[in-house]
Design goal:
The complex is a heterodimer of chains A (about 300) and B (about 325). Chain A has about 300 residues and is an all-alpha fold. Helix content of chain A is about 75%, strand content about 0%. Chain B is mostly helical and about 325 residues long. Classes of the chains: A mainly alpha (about 300), B mainly alpha (about 325).
Amino acid sequence: MSTTDFTPALSRSALRYRKLRDRTIELLLLAAALVAVFTTLAIVAILLIESSAFFEHVSIVDFLTDTMWTPLFADAHYGILPLVAGTLTTTMVALIVAVPLGTLIAIYLSEFAPHRIRETVKPILELLGAVPTVVYGYFALTMVTPALQWLMPDLPGFNMLSAGLVIGLMIVPYVSSLSEDAMRAVPRYMREGSYAMGATRLQTALRVVVPGAFSGLAAAFILGISRAVGETMVVAIAAGMQPNLTFDPREPAATITAYIVQVSLGDLPHGSIGYQSIFAAGLVLMFLTLIFNVVGFSLTRRFREAY
Amino acid sequence: MSVNPAMAPFLDPNSVKRGLSRRKVLDKVFVIIGLTVMLACLAILAVLFIDLIKDGSERFTWDFFTNFASRRAERAGILAAWVGTTLIMVVTAICAVPVGVAAAIYLEEYAPKNWFTAIIEINVTNLAGVPSIVYGLLALGLFVYEFDLGQSIAAAGLTLALLILPIVIVATRESIRSVPKAIREAAYGLGATRWEVTKDHVLPYSTGGILTGMILGLSRAIGETAPIITIGALSFIAFLPESPFTSEFPFISFGWLNDPFTAMPIQMFNWVSRPDPAFQANAAAAGAILLGMTLMMNAVAIWIRYRFRKKINW
């Protein structure tokens, strides 16, 4: 038995080939991962470039203080406030629906529901999150608005109330599913400690689990808010397309997103001021989303409980 | 020994009992409220969906699938819309899945732990939170005008691909992460390179999760309306894009990539926004079909996840 005629399974050049192949593949994979970075950069760049062209015609002061938004009229005004008011109003209505309902359902599912119910309802909630928003828009216009008009006879056919309510209903599954995940992540021994002190399930849920999961709950609400702010089709269909500076949800008003859709439906020439105005509107939308996210992030940081 | 008067109720057995039964009642009340609210929410949504299907039911005919849009509601159909949606989905899947899976592999298997990787990760998370209409604006500026793709199927497919990229990445990462370390180490121990470990061991085990993520992403893309309105989808199209299959060699053509298009959600939006109630039935029918498509895709995704989870025993 000799050990001297040992030949390696792979020749030197085969090894070198393997190394080279691995290196190439790694670079390709890195390039794919960088697509995400480039997308973000491209979004910021496009919004800033087109908006800066817009702000060559319109002063920022007018943009932020004028109370009329009529870029497509002969007497053009470029005040973003009416669109922001519309966006905030529909978002508020949606949150008034979604936050209490979503939290309640999450607490029930996480702390009280029998295993069978939870395992049935969770997939349904996830399924509901996939329903196209244009379908919810149809609900708002053809079912919820008539129902509201039966309650409030002088409600106009387009109104922010109906759109906001439907957005709220739409994000309830989303918020409750995320909140439930957050509450389930609170360790079991904390609940058991609380039970051992004689607390009931409700007391444990409200005083131990909810505070413990607060950062996760805040994150869920923030994601809900982002969806409500950026929601487009429901408001474009049910809230009307007229910019209207009001915080009264019973009135029709355009949101930022609805305005972008309205302009896109027409055929505005590339480079015109109307074309540039949707990018300025988009910039404001991104800014609003950013503000909510920053606030949410700092809340999450402040109330994070480490186990 | 004197007793602190504030503690008195806790030492009186009767008052303790009363407090306990009150707390237990509250507990029960909350269970009832929670269950009622949850069922009420689900019931409202169920009623809305049933109403949608009922409103659209009179339009579920063969003609509805084979007719183009028309000025007359009874003769209008969704031919251009479903063909458009199918072609867009093909482009979206071809672009988003390889890039998304590759990015996920990089982040899970290759990426060193440093600030650069952190930036990529933060980017992926943030992109998932960007409103979809902003993707539309990006596509309008970049794909339609900068790359000069025009208001075409290619531009729409690329837009939706960017939109679902985070979904594909996150789902793939989760399923890659669930492959135990021991599998990788065993392969490294036999002298496999990193790519060999990934390709021959990690990826086969995570196929289920990757497929699920891909289908969930596409089911999101199929219903997205806002971004493709923004890039300029037409809502009235009475012709089909160029056929992808030709009778002459090489039998496949890519001319359709440059054609204008409409899609299911666009068609539905167009019908919803008409005042004529006859078109509302069309909108409901299109909505029901769209809903059926998304729910079916999700059901398939859930089924795949279940199948693969059952098959693998670590």
